[in-house]
Amino acid sequence: MLPRVSVYTPGQVAEETGFSLDTLRYYERIGLLEPIGRNAAGQRRFTQDDIGWLGMIRCLRDTGMPIAEMIRFAELVRTGEHTIRDRIALLDAHDRRVEAQVANLREKQRAIRNKINYYRAVVD
Questions:
Q1: Whole-angstrom distance, CA of residue 103 vs CA of residue 99
Q2: 8 burial class (0-12, 13-18, 19+ CB within 10 angstroms)?
């Protein structure tokens, strides 16, 4: 966990979030991250808000949301409160896809467990 300070280096953010430095630069370039502030020397400095946003991006990415949808979500968030219904619709659609993936994995897990039980019965 990062110490509570006002700004973080890219290396600290990469370590905290698990995103590589290249990924952080890419996300900024494509607009998934808002432009990152810079210090007097021109070095990127991330805020706690940036790290929080990256946590949301991590969640969406880890659950399989396509980049285009993540960008759309980011645009909606930046546009303002009047987009909340659109954000809900986008997240609801993603949640349904995640739920279907979970159900599919549970079905496959049952097949694996059945095979384990079969093999255990054979060796006992």
A1: 6
A2: buried
Q: Which residues contact 63 (CB under 8 A, 6 or more apart)?
A: 94, 98
Q: Are 5 and 19 in contact (CB under 8 A)?
A: no
* Of 79, 101, 77, the residue nearest 88 (C-alpha): 77
One-letter identity of residue 74: A
Taking residues 21-25, report their average pLDDT.
Answer: 97
Contact 64, 43 (CB under 8 A): no
Phi, psi for residue 9 in degrees, rounded to 5: -80, 160
Q: In angstroms, rounded to a whole number, what is the distance separating the alpha carbons of residues 29 and 94? A: 24
pLDDT tens digits, 26-71: 999 999 999 999 999 999 999 999 999 999 999 999 999 999 999 9
Q: What is the pTM of this model?
A: 0.84
